[in-house]
From TrEMBL:
Family: Belongs to the zinc-containing alcohol dehydrogenase family.
Cofactor requirements of the protein: Zn(2+)
The protein's name in its UniProt record: NAD(P)-dependent alcohol dehydrogenase
Domain spans labelled Enoyl reductase (ER): 11-343
Record carries keyword Transmembrane: no
Length: 350
């Protein structure tokens, strides 16, 4: 065991604050990592404030981790001390069920071990995430940062990138498809870039007319202001796919009406009950599909990093001193970040 530091919430109503705790010494298959950067995902806010009802305290968020390998267990073959690596939302899974065998560890039938607030499969301790100076992770759940990639702007690919890439790939998005991205925050801005790189015609749906110019700079071909009924009506029956990153309950019906027949509305932001209710006719009469998607498997997380390197895609980030993490949460809720905060972990030493 060794002593680590990080920022954690002690309860759903207390702000994040510094905390000292113990990280395990690397097991045979483990990689120890000095964390250099960690992205700030809206899921971190949901969890720190127990908005999903599954939080375990103390809760140390952070699952967009980039760092340098400092030690490896004796059975580690894939990484060496000094390698630049990433860790996303998961740190373990059963590794033998149908989902794990298909490289879909996020759907592990026994439940994946998440990077924070989940019991470790070996010793039962509560996992602690990346708002910290270090982490120790099984080598299977570690990915390689492509050579030459900017480390800070690579961090959000570990969650925002894979969460938007995975469903676009799964549903076969390609040139000629019309894709709508709902919400331009951390996930949404990556969704625009990735769908565009896959060849789709991309439209951003946003509440904020002021984001239109920015969205075009990200690669969006069109922008629809979702609060403007006329603009919504103008795109009725238009889209093959919608990727919905909105983090709160919202009316799905006006969006479903913008899909073609056989169109697919993919939820990634919402896990609460749909409210107001869904009009089933919006699905039935056009054979439309309402789908969901959870992050992506480890092999695909490496794939999206490599895809971003190949296509010159990076996240738009604002660097953050960890001392300002609570303000950053308020600003994210107000939609005041372009488009991902990334913590510079060097500031943890201050
Ligand atoms: P952000 O806060 O960065 O962005 C969310 C965007 O949604 C905002 O920028 C805004 O875009 C839009 N939005 C926010 N509030 C509202 C509202 N009240 N009504 C309508 N639109 C709104 O969040 P992230 O991108 O980090 O995360 C998005 C969601 O995805 C979160 O719920 C997160 O937990 C979830 N998530 C899911 C994962 C999965 O595997 N399924 C993985 C990671 C995250 P605009 O101003 O353009 O309207
Ligand atoms: Zn996330």
């Amino acid at each position: 065991m060794y002593t680590a530091i990080g920022y954690a919430a002690q309860s759903a109503t207390t702000p994040l604050a510094p905390m000292t705790f113990q990280r395990r010494s690397p097991r045979a298959d483990d990689v120890a990592i000095e964390i250099l950067y960690c992205g700030v995902c809206h899921s971190d806010i949901h969890q720190a404030r127990n908005e999903w009802g599954i939080a375990v305290y103390p809760l140390m968020p952070g699952h967009e981790i980039v760092g340098k390998v400092t030690a490896v267990g004796h059975a580690v073959s894939r990484y060496q001390v000094g390698d630049l690596v990433g860790v996303g939302c998961m740190v373990d899974s059963c590794r033998h069920c149908e989902a794990c065998a298909a490289d879909l560890e996020q759907y592990c039938l026994e439940g994946p071990t998440m990077t924070y607030a989940t019991p470790d499969r070996v010793d039962g301790s509560n996992t602690m995430g990346g708002y910290s100076n270090s982490i120790v992770v099984n080598q299977h759940f570690v990915v390689r940062i492509p050579t030459g990639m900017d480390l800070a702007s690579a961090a959000p690919i570990l969650c925002a990138g894979i969460t938007t890439y995975s469903p676009l790939k799964h549903h076969g998005v390609k040139a000629g498809h019309k894709v709508g991205i709902l919400g331009m925050g951390g996930l949404g801005h990556m969704g625009i870039k990735l769908a565009k790189a896959m060849g789709a015609e991309v439209t951003l749906f946003t509440r904020s007319a002021s984001k239109a110019e920015e969205a075009r700079r990200q690669g969006a071909d069109h922008v629809v202001v979702s609060t403007d009924a006329e603009q919504m009506a103008a795109v009725a029956g238009h889209f093959d796919f919608l990727l919905d990153t909105i983090p709160v309950q919202h009316d799905l019906n006006p969006y479903l009406e913008t899909l073609k027949f056989d169109g697919v509305h993919i939820l990634v932001g919402l896990i609460e009950p749909v409210e107001p209710p869904l009009h089933a006719a919006n699905l039935v009469l056009k054979r439309r599909v309402l789908a969901g998607s959870l992050i992506g498997g480890i092999a695909q997380t490496q794939e999206v990093l490599d895809f971003c390197a190949e296509h010159g895609i990076s996240c738009d980030i604002e660097m953050l001193d960890i001392q300002h993490i609570n303000e950053a949460y308020s600003r994210m809720i107000a939609g005041d970040v372009k488009y991902r905060f990334v913590i510079d972990m060097a500031t943890l030493k201050a």
